[in-house]
Write a structure and sequence with these properties.
By secondary structure, this protein is mainly alpha-helical. The chain contains three helices and two strands. It has a two-stranded antiparallel ribbon with strand order 1-2. The longest helix has 19 residues.
Length: 95
């Protein structure tokens, strides 16, 4: 899909990006190459191929979900300026 100089300038204007006029031709060339690559990839037959969740075939090492620390909430809240029903009370800052 060919990209024109005016298309690059138009998209840059919409995106509020300043492009140096000296480099616009390079952007046209580079964007055209990217779109050509996408077209090549689009032509690859992918019927019957399942999508991957991860590009590598790895298994995550999971640890058991066990409590390893004692509950010290009551002790920690005794030094708090204000706490109620297990929650810290803070001043309202947004009206």
């Amino acid at each position: 899909m060919p990209i024109t100089k005016s298309a690059v300038e138009h998209v840059a204007h919409l995106a509020k990006i300043h492009l140096e006029p000296l480099y616009i031709d390079k952007y046209v060339h580079d964007l055209s190459e990217i779109l050509d690559l996408v077209e090549q990839m689009d032509s690859i037959p992918t019927q019957g191929i399942e999508p991957l969740a991860h590009p590598q075939d790895i298994e995550l090492r999971l640890r058991p979900d066990l409590v390893t620390e004692a509950n010290t909430r009551e002790r920690l809240q005794t030094v708090a300026p204000a706490a109620e029903r297990g929650l810290y009370s803070v001043p309202k800052i947004i009206e």
